Amino acid sequence: MFQQVIHQYKEDHQLSTFKPKAVLFDMDGVLYDSMKNHTYAWQEAMKKFGLDVPAEMTYQYEGMRGVETIQILMREQRNETIDEDEALRMYNEKARVFETLPTAPIMPGVLKLMHKIKDAGLQIVVVTGSAQKPLIERLLTDFEGFIVREKIVSAYDVTRGKPAPDPYLKGLLKAGGLQPHEAMVVENAPLGVSAGVAAGILTIAVNSGPLPNEALSSRGAAVVYDDMEQLANDWHVCW
């Protein structure tokens, strides 16, 4: 299956070969099984501001910068426009609630996959819409030997979050100025898939949430896996 995906990508982009040099990972729902915590934190924090955040909405907006998500919610639910400073104040409450919750575990299969990627000589880059510094810092400890600070893209690195291509284009720069066909994206959210595709990168989806696979494939995911374990087990087939 994966060989067919690569063949289609090469055909679509008029490439004679496909030899990626980096894999760009989203963080929440991909590296960490953290989306349940994020959903709870969004719901509890936004209640204080009169906003309703259904669980599915957290997955639909996942990957977008938190301040952008809040600005959208304010427009849609309260018909109010707020600036980034006000949105950041509200987002900080969401971050505070999140930090009170149990630590989200590493997603099963991730370390196995990272070993295979590293053994193949590819770089690992993290591209997240998160602005929660403790969670970003945790990457350096949990994935020591695989992830370094210089190859993490967060909400602090871009002014336009996913679904804009900016975060993944920034990831290519941090990987050494790679071209889109020299990388792959692993995502779990519709907006993240849209961002990877808009950047011109072969984008793989792992459906770790409640949305149907079509929510990811319809955004341009080249293939949708059920979980990270399945992707890790299939990786040897990929090359």
From TrEMBL:
> What's the domain of life for this entry?
Bacteria
Which terms in the Gene Ontology molecular function aspect does this entry carry?
A: hydrolase activity
What protein name is recorded for this chain?
A: HAD-IA family hydrolase
Q: Which PANTHER family match?
A: FRUCTOSE-1-PHOSPHATE PHOSPHATASE (PTHR43481), GLYCEROL-1-PHOSPHATE PHOSPHOHYDROLASE 1-RELATED (PTHR43481:SF4)
Keyword match Hydrolase: yes
Q: Which Pfam families match?
A: Hydrolase
Determine if Transferase is one of this entry's keywords: no
Keywords linked to the UniProt accession: Hydrolase
